[in-house]
Design goal:
The structure holds two protein chains of two kinds. By secondary structure, chain A is mainly α. In chain A, 59% of the residues lie in helices and 0% in strands. Chain A starts with a helix and ends with a helix. Chain B is α+β, with helices and mostly antiparallel strands. In chain B, the strands form two sheets. In chain B, strands 2, 3, 4, 5, 6 and 7 form a six-stranded antiparallel sheet that branches. Chain B has a four-stranded antiparallel sheet with strand order 1-10-9-8, with helices on one face. Classes of the chains: A mainly alpha, B alpha+beta. Chains A and B meet through helix 1 and helix 5 of A and helix 13, helix 14, helix 16 and strand 9 of B.
Chain lengths: 165, 662
């Protein structure tokens, strides 16, 4: 049980900190220009964020970048800027789902599916392991006096090594 | 010529249907002659499809603008190599190309199994021909590549300039090969389900086909990333575009299968998993094709929107219902007595590895289709872009990296404390030491740090396995280190090939982590002679160069790169202006080293003021993604190469058909 718990702790320890970036899904109160541009989708059809669109004099991306710079210069917060663009263009301009209503489903479902599937696997494994546990048997009779202890040890080691593969 | 091509396609469809009928009837009535006839019909299908493909290619090369397809995708100024690439550059041609590749692989399968797997082959043939008939049906009735224009065009419209890149010759064929070859394991899996022969036979037979498909899916994904990196000029290599996602999902599931199948071979476990994974891989290739052709989800990579969506949806439904019914019917037989005894075992590690891989595939699928779900449920169109995919997949990817270090060396059945210590003490120690060193040098604790630490851990376990195998052989046989190492690898090609592939994956993880977390970027407008700085580089703008031909005009900035005041390179970021579609494109100037890429994009140039706007990026470790791909290719070659025993068997009995160890 200790080893099992340790393994799970190691797995969690390596995974949970990586979830930290997910906690910062919304833009910060005082975002950078690049951060804001990454949070918006260019409307020219390139499929990229405003920050990544590289179209020459893009009719969508360039005005958005300019407006972001102006709003940041006026001291507007990140959420406020996003809200302004969303009000004008609709949710489609946001490069990721919001954390409101139905959109939560986008974020939660992948992790929920993995967690539930993992739990089912764990429970199933536990049950099968218990069901398949061998019944203890009486110790076998000692080997004949003429047996070779060295040979038995060698066979045991080889079987053990073979089992590793 | 168009009439011959169209006739060939129609006859091919007829032959495919004929093959299906003969194969099914032959199997049910145990008529070997009918089964053979079905196979011969499959050969005929390939011949006819090949003829049609050659004729279309000929029309492209000959600039036969009476054909709508040629007029749409070729031109008199298009270079010959791109005329060839136009075969798969458009909707109609690519579907014909898919049918060509599929029937080619079908022919190979038929030849390979002339004298073996005879109880499975009728159903294999039938399955492959059903898929073929679907694509040929589309080509025959919906998207005829030999459609004539009412009035022949005098000139072609040219291939999309973004496709006029050498990667166009490499990436699509690679991806198509990976996609199409996934049909082969699928066909054998279906045959196993139908016949009830659910043992290892179908798995052994398709082992190399599964690896072949996976390999080309790997290449397809990586080549696509390289192409995007070189051409699109936004500084990145993966944008989580729906079409990119469509190529990534079957790779993930296929990867899970290649791991899981080893458990079945060794322990006769995970039969259901393996069956489902093979079936799912194929289904995802069809789904991916649906995404690129239906227009249901917006993508810059999609073909022109067409009416193919409903047909693909219908085909997907048939696949899912048929497969689901068969699996449900055979479920009692698929279940095995074997069980995983402990969480701390190789079997369990592989199982959770499967879970993570499939979980990532689901996350990608969910993010890709969620805009459609949202519009359907709420009537609101939304975007699910890179920020979503990066944040959802990062923790799952890191968990995968951890399991990649654990799986190869943890003990089978149940690991004891002693086993764990022996297996992991060294790699864990090195990984933690590396982590401390990185923290000491200023790297912040976070996803990137975790990736590097776990990457070192995974590398450590692989290196340890190579070392231990070599040392064991040296101790037993007193061989030199190089000889012992080569012998160990040669005797266990699949195992050590897999280890090498893991090293490639680690390299890719490093590249992704480095370029994501530590990227620098800067944009500046410069006059001639002016400089800008980014990272350790100083960039001096030295003017522009231009040239022109009948096909396009080019404008390149001349940028001298200095480090510590010394010039080390001259880069030429470029804009191209194609004349036929009148479309500008960006040609990136990239200086790549093991440490980082210096990536320059010409943003704009004002002819009046002579001012130029440069976008500069420093992308650390990107080259390791491509190196990782090469390492994976090497590992695949090692894994797939026949073992000495197989070669000996073949040498001893060269005339014995089916005598291979497979």
């Amino acid at each position: 049980m200790n080893a099992r718990a340790a393994a799970l702790c190691v797995l969690l320890a390596t995974t949970v900190p990586a979830l930290a970036p997910a906690a910062a899904l919304a833009v910060s109160e005082r975002p950078t220009q690049a951060e804001m541009e990454e949070a918006l989708t260019c409307q020219c059809g390139c499929g990229l964020t405003v920050h990544s669109c590289n179209h020459l004099n893009c009719g969508s991306g360039e005005p958005i970048k300019k407006e972001i710079a102006e709003r940041l210069a006026r001291g507007e917060t990140g959420p406020a800027i996003l809200a302004a663009f969303e009000a004008r263009f609709g949710e489609k301009i946001l490069s990721a789902p919001t954390f409101r209503g139905f959109n939560w489903l986008a974020w939660v479902t992948p992790f929920l599916v993995v967690f539930v599937a993992g739990s089912i696997l764990a429970v199933t494994l536990r049950r099968r392991a218990r069901a398949g546990a061998p019944t203890p048997v009486a110790p076998s009779a000692p080997p004949p006096a003429g047996g070779d202890p060295a040979l038995r040890d060698r066979l045991a080691r080889e079987l053990k090594d073979l089992d590793r593969d | 010529m168009a009439e011959i091509g169209r006739l060939a396609i129609s006859l091919a469809l007829l032959c495919a249907v004929f093959s299906i009928g003969l194969s099914v009837i032959g199997a049910r009535r145990r008529r070997g002659d009918l089964v053979r006839s079905g196979e011969h019909a499959a050969y005929a299908t390939f011949g006819l499809v090949a003829l049609a493909t050659v004729l279309l290619l000929r029309a492209l090369l000959a600039q036969d603008y009476s054909l709508e397809y040629v007029a749409a995708y070729s031109s008199s100024t298009l270079p010959t190599n791109y005329k060839i690439a136009a075969l798969w550059g458009g909707q109609k041609g690519s579907l014909l190309f898919w049918a060509f590749v599929l029937t080619l692989f079908t022919t190979v399968v038929e030849v390979q199994n002339r004298a073996r797997n005879r109880e499975l082959m009728p159903w294999v043939t039938a399955t492959l021909m059903i898929v073929t008939a679907f694509f040929l049906g589309l080509v025959t009735f919906i998207t005829d590549p030999f459609e004539r224009l009412p009035v022949p065009a005098t000139e072609g419209a040219d291939l999309n300039p973004l496709l006029q890149n050498y990667w166009m010759m490499i990436h699509p064929p690679s991806l198509y090969t990976g996609y199409v070859s996934a049909s082969v394991p699928f066909a054998f899996a279906m045959a196993a389900l139908i016949t009830g022969r659910l043992g290892d036979q179908w798995i052994r037979t398709t082992r190399r086909w599964a690896l072949f498909s996976w390999f080309f899916l790997t290449l397809g994904n990586l080549f696509g990333a390289m192409w995007a990196y070189e051409v699109l000029g936004w500084g990145g290599y993966w944008a989580w575009d729906p079409v990119e996602n469509a190529a990534f999902m079957p790779w993930l599931v296929s990867t899970a299968y290649l791991h899981s199948v080893m458990i079945q071979e060794k322990k006769d476990m995970l039969r259901v998993w393996n069956m489902v994974l093979v079936l799912l891989t194929f289904t995802l290739t069809i789904f991916g094709t649906f995404l690129t052709r239906s227009g249901v989800i917006s993508s810059v990579h999609s073909f022109t929107q067409s009416g193919l969506g409903p047909y693909f949806i219908g085909f997907l439904l048939v696949i899912l219902l048929g497969v689901g019914a068969l699996v449900a019917y055979r479920l009692p037989e698929l279940r095995t007595a074997g069980t995983i005894e402990s969480f701390l075992s190789r079997e369990a590690a592989f199982l959770f590895n499967n879970l993570i891989l499939v979980g990532i595939a689901f996350a990608v699928f969910w993010g890709t289709v969620f805009p459609v779900v949202s519009e359907w449920v709420r009537g609101v169109k939304i975007t699910v872009g890179p920020p979503f995919f990066n944040r959802v997949n990062a923790p799952l990817g890191i968990a995968l990296l951890f399991l990649m270090g654990v799986g190869p060396v943890i003990a089978w059945r149940r690991a004891t404390a002693k086993n764990l210590w022996k297996a992991f003490a060294g790699p864990v120690g090195v990984a933690l030491a590396t982590g401390v060193l990185f923290l000491a040098t200023g790297m912040p604790f976070g996803a990137a740090w975790l990736t590097f630490v776990l990457g070192v851990f995974a590398t450590g376990t692989v290196v340890q396995e190579f070392w231990r195998g070599m040392r064991a052989r040296q101790a037993l046989l007193h061989e030199s280190a190089p000889r012992a190492l080569s012998r160990v690898v040669g005797k266990n090609r699949r195992r050590y090939g897999g280890y090498i592939i893991h090293l490639g994956i680690v390299a890719i993880f490093f590249g992704i982590a480095g370029s994501s977390a530590f990227r620098l970027e800067k944009q500046q407008t410069l006059n001639t002679g002016e400089q800008m700085s980014i990272g350790r580089y100083v960039l001096r703008y030295d003017g522009v160069q231009s040239k022109e031909d009948g096909h396009l005009s080019q404008l390149a900035a001349v940028v001298t790169v200095l480090v510590d005041g010394k010039p080390i390179d001259v880069l030429h970021p470029e804009k191209r202006f194609y004349k036929k579609p009148k479309q500008p494109t960006t040609e990136v100037a990239n200086r790549s080293t093991l440490r980082e890429d210096l990536y320059l994009v010409l943003g704009s140039y004002d002819d009046a003021t002579k001012l130029v706007t440069l976008l500069a990026y420093v992308n650390p470790l990107v080259v390791w993604i491509w190196i990782g791909g090469l390492v994976m290719a090497l590992g695949t070659a090692v894994a797939v190469w026949p073992s000495g025993r197989e070669r000996e068997v073949r040498v001893l009995a060269p005339g014995a058909v089916g005598a291979s160890a497979e």
